[in-house]
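Team,

Forwarding the record for the chain on the shared tracking sheet. I've put the sequence and predicted structure together so nobody has to dig through attachments.
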Amino acid sequence: MKSSFRFALTLLFVFSISSLTMAQADKSQRPSPPATATGKIGTATVTIQYNSPSVKGRTVWGELVPYGKVWRAGANEATTFETDQAIQVGGKSLPAGKYTLFAIPEEKQWTFIFNSQTGQWGVKRTGEANLDRANDVLTVTAKPKAMASASERLMYEVTPQGFTLKWATLEVPVSLKE
């Protein structure tokens, strides 16, 4: 009797742990779920993979995302930018490949950083962006502008003219060409 009780207890424990592990593996259930924006720039396919946080009543620009500091351009894992062909970003050449996309927001101008190190979590334990500047491939600037209507969730949009980051009350367009 004792052994069957122990066996049942062990099964219950294993089931509970495996259910918890599977729930954590379902990234769509995160507060900042994964999202993808894909589009064509001429014949090049551009894909941005990111995690989409919500405003949740917070002041985003200048507070949640401080001005003048490197930001992972999303939540959780670092945001990635991939192109299957060489393209021009803000008039500068970016070879085909996969990059981590970082941003340095400012009130009047943003800097976007394309970095060759990929696969890292977005921030270090210290809270700063997980960026090794030795792996920077390209930096470009862009001008933020007010959005006509606020966006609760961070989103990227890829169009034939480039990509746009949209969140809270701002959108930041970046020009792309083949």
